[in-house]
Protein 1
Amino acid sequence: MKERQSGVLLHISSLPGKYGIGSLGQEAFDFVDFLVRTKQRYWQILPLGPTSYGDSPYQSFSAFAGNTHLIDVDTLIEQGWLSYEDVDGIDFGSHPTEVDYAKVFISRRPVLEKAVTNLKTKGLPESYYRFAEENAFWLHTFAEYMAIKESFGLKSWTEWDDEHIRLRRPEALADYRQRLADQMDYHRLTQYLFFQQWQQLKNYANENGIEIVGDMPIYIAADSADMWANPHFFKTDEQGRPAVVAGCPPDDFSAIGQLWGNPIYDWDAMKADGFTWWIARLRESFKLYDMVRIDHFIGFASFWEIPAGEETAVNGYRVEAPGFELFAAIKAELGDLNIIAEDLGSVTDKVIQLRDTTGFPGMKVLQFAFDPEGDSIELPHNHTNNVVAYTGTHDNHTIKGWYEEEMGDEARDFLDLYSNRKPDESVNQAMLRLLFSSVAFMAIVTMQDLLDLGDEARMNLPNTVGGNWIWRMTKDQLTPQVEETLLDLTTTYRRTNKKLVEKKH
């Protein structure tokens, strides 16, 4: 039996702050303190990679790089890489509860360029050279990719006009490296700044008994350094473009399924290579996080493959994946890993077998539970110890939004009855009580649900572009009452972080 514990899901971009988007600065350290005061063990976040079109952290230019939007400006000022004059009067976006990604994209680049210039002028610290050496296997390729991509007006590599650099021919690479040396330096150095700040935050969290739960998308973006550098690991056409793309089949939630558009792995090629790319990806992830949630874990058993050019997922088909061999190879190389298997969706016997063989905990989401006619596996009385229970995920309504916008009267009545909801009790209170009282060893509440927010705070609406990933918390929303609620739930249902208790003695 795993010991009971709990945590909060809040992405870095959703933290408060004055530069248009949450960052790795003081507000992040303050949030760790909040988790300590409420006796949590985990802070769960979304992927940290650089975001591309649509601002989704699940569509990144790299499986290894960090999102430079999250670099904290005040920290750079404290370090002497910037001055307050460098940022005075710049419009980073002024909406207190929303990220304006267009403004962030435009306004942060010249600020970070100044920081990079100052770094180079004053002399690069020894820690930079160590970082560059330790991360050489991805850093330089990423810097090349981004610099070349920018030189082609930010087009994806499959659309670059120069075939020689598209195909990474040595003479073309040498030419671009020479011409774009400064731009490549910019991307290397901003990665250094990102990871320096991230490590400081993680160290602070760990020293205070808080562990970080990261999130790993199963797929990567076609528009990424990883695919440009490793096209042989993907199913491509003669031009190197994705021949098939990822998604999920039609179901009760969507008659057309979901068309994600990510390239599909050539699992035969990966297997022949000893799954080295995946081993490297997991190894690097566990340098950043204490636990990793793998999104769409079911894709390691089988996946939905859709011919490129389709407008929906309807004409896709299911293909088997070598999940057992993959995780055996990972375990042989890296040992036992602290992984959460996101097993939501079409869970086949093979998925269950793969999850049970690895021993990874699966997920339960309370918003999927309340079918008044059925006995859903998501209902708390059907939970087991080795699962992670959530009110909802980044793809769901908030509890309040779900109750008001999606649930029918019968489902609402069933929820009220099941939770023994009192007349003066909000649906949020009832749901949080169910979550924390579950036998699941780990309970994770989204910050939006803890704050009792409606769908104005929803993080993502799948299959849509625009208006997603923008929600931010304000500092004044973290009231003493919110703290008290979380602390009461945590202590009442015996989820107190034992590490914090031990630390006091």
Protein 2
Amino acid sequence: MTMISHDIQAQALQISDDKPVAADAKKPYIQVERRHWVNALLFLLCMSMMGLKFPPAYLFVPLILIRSLRKDHYDAAIQLTIFFGGYALIGKDTLPFKTDDLMLLASLVGIVAYHKPPLVRKVLFGLLLYAAAIIILASFSEESMSVQIRLIRYYLGFIYFIVPLMLFAGRDFDMEEFLRRLFPYVIIVCAFYAIDGYVLCAHILIPNSYIAGEGVSTFNDPIYYGFGNFPRKYPPGLFLIGLIIWPIANSYRIRWYHWLIILTALMASRTFTLILAIALCLMFFQPKIKRILGYTITAVVLLTIGYMVDSTMPLNPESEESTLRIKSSLDQIFVLDEAKDDEDLAEAGSGRIGQALPKLELLYKYDKQWTGLGFLHPELTTNTKYIIENEYYSDIEKNIEVATGIEISPLQVFLTIGYIGLIIHLIFFIWLYVVIRKLKYSKYYLSVMVFVFIVGLGGTMGWNQTTGLLLMGLTYAAVLLANKDNVWGRLKASTDISNQRNLT
């Protein structure tokens, strides 16, 4: 009896244990079957062709998704996430409908059709309260609710977590297998960035990675700069790296050439907040203090070297930023301490503070700091009350704008729903982690949540944008699925232990 009791105890501990795989031993190299690399490559190439508006791709992508939905639910979950988010493979005008809306529709179907355990119902109830709170705050704005609802829906993207749960209803889920299956998609997207940025010098494999104003890249008229003219590629596709940071920190090693592909892709994006997010998460999600210190020292050394190299390179004649944007990004931080007036302050954060200042001034002018200006639309909002002239823009043609669109996600949330909304917003997403904190692999979700927040400081994604919320929803679902026995209550380890003790 005692032996049986010990076995049950050991099983229970294993279920609740959040230690990473091989945390106390040398981590193995991640191993992925060749066919999974082929499947990932085929899907991503078809997504690229769809982004270039190549007609056959509009048939191939749905066929691949249907096949995955029928035969491989790991691929299906990953592919749907990439499809709904676009991630610079497809753009907002690629399809006649918004993929965000299709995602919300799929999620609503899941809510109705999916048998939800108590923990999932608890999360959905919290999401309902969050949605109700921001709608109530939006009602204080003079902007019509018909306009505001177009943007409110982006704040609710976390609802996507129900879709992966629905995909694996009645099926086994292996977290380690899921992590292995993620890896090819991330590395191939990084390879696309590296090839586009430094070989093709174009926007072809990642066709929607161009900066606003550069035109539209299509299969019959691609954006091509000519070899030697290395473009900066907008980073949404590289957000997928956030999905493998925790596994790399805790469970697996990757080959040197995989690191080379990732670093080359990051150089092509030249996005400091993304690099910072990866570095910080790799540091602080290490399982041991010694590793944290080692990664911290390595990061500081590499950053110093990068700063020194970037200082010797010529400035970009168009943006007047350093070539690698390391020096210019770090220098922007020092501006905050040295700023003598608003004009100096406006230069901080690559000009993002200048973007924000007149909008925040308007917020306080109308005494809306507690409830916000509302979900203003950059194109549909016509109320002159919300139209400003931004004196900090060098481009005179763009200085008349709607008081929205701050490329610092927390500030955008504050501008939209005020202090009350920002507090509710932060509490809700922190609460989501608290709900699952005792489950195995919960730190995997935490790492993605932190990653999305840090990148959001640069405005390219955040807890209020679909691209970030899809990644958070996917990993949240993965944590729940990896703990099926606990979450769904099919294995009540604690009860079994108690009963066994009584028998003993």
Protein 3
Amino acid sequence: MNVLTKNIENRNQVEFVSLEEMVPADHLLRQIDAAIDFNKVYEFVGDLYCKDNGRPSIDPVVLFKIVLIQHIYGIRSLRRTLEEVGMNMAYRWFIGYPLNEQVPHFSTVSYNFKHRFNTASVEYIFRWVLKAAADEGYLDTEAVFVDGTHIKASANLKKQARKAVPIEAKRYAHELFDEINKDREAHGKKPFDENNNGNDSGSGDNSGEPEIIEKTVSTTDPECGVFHKGEHKKVFAYEAHPACDKHNFILGVHVTPGNIHDSVAFDSLYDDICKHYPEHKIVAADSAYKTPWICKRIFESGRVLTFAYTRPKTKDGTHPWYTYVYDEYFDDVICPEYKVLHYSTTNRDGYREYKSRSYLCADCPTKAMCTQNAKCEKTVTRHIWQRFVDMAEDVRHTPLYRDIYKLRQQKIERVFADAKEKHGMRYTQYRGLAQVTNWVKLKFAAMNLKKLATWKWKRKNLSPWKRRRRIFAADYFSWLLFFPFQTKKPALAGLLRQTFSTG
């Protein structure tokens, strides 16, 4: 005989419960709490609070933990996060609030992260998590993987206006200008005037004012940019430019409006990477970073840039670009019909122009495939930093760097997938470049912390059988690999044993 059980009466029961017992031992928040010492937060936020005046403050560790919960679980907003914290026992255990204590209001948390905890505080959190991962030996910064991804802004596409804005000068503009003039002087040409944006004769504008361009600007969030998604759809967006290592730890990030090209944002990101991880040797990026300046900067610093193959952008029915061969010794270009294109000038964009002789091209059998110029002249341009681009092309064909580039899709693209699908980075509700930057850095800090906690927990709770198996493997490989070199490298076997045994 079946007995129908009704549990609705249990709603009014009064029980004594312990949050410590209600949260599973292997819960993710337990792993995070054990992976890092949150008391470090007091060290860099202490000077933001008054010690002898005002009302008692909310624990800053609680505020940071609430935001970490939002980014770890991909919760849409702070308002929804505080609702979840009030109902979820694991969340309450993580922030140290019992069941009968009211959680902070979402506006309090929002105000603190807008007005109290500035960009420096968020940067400290980001670097603090990375340092903890580095101390555990989890970072591998030999190769750095770089790319960009767009984040839809909190801006209505219908609320827009056309606005004239000055074109921002490139960071390397002065260095490029100096090298252009040196190159012109070496070829017997008159150097350019820095304040003259015209031609060689000096007939241009001498005002020295920046060039103005008209752009579409959002009236809701003027700091975002228009991003063309596909052929027809366009949205207002920001773009995050992160760099990660081989273990998918995000090493740095730079946020720009959505209409800024990846190559333009690279300098700020790379400055940050060089500052904190100067030991890196390889940079893997896609074809958007294939510019003379980026190639020059990386190779001149003693590092290597590897990127993807780019399809030749020549018109159908014309000679491929690679059939025009540069002769470095004579500083000339040889066309497919073995005619010489001599140096003509170096323009303001940093490109040397090589032109053919019209009387030689007039009777050329492949003139239609070469030029449609009425004067029968063919002009080939070559950047003054082109040799660095050629070095990157040569590197691309080597097996080592070809394999490293193949890892780019598995590393940086995986970071984007996790951030958008699991951690809610597809859209942002914040407005303004500063607020979006802090939001992105906190999200990546949460992702790094999640990976750090998971790895530490697995290593700590490795079963005895697996641990013995790894120790056996370490002993075997140490004998197999280092037996002939025991007298020269006795520490390598011990190091390998320790690596295998600790995971």
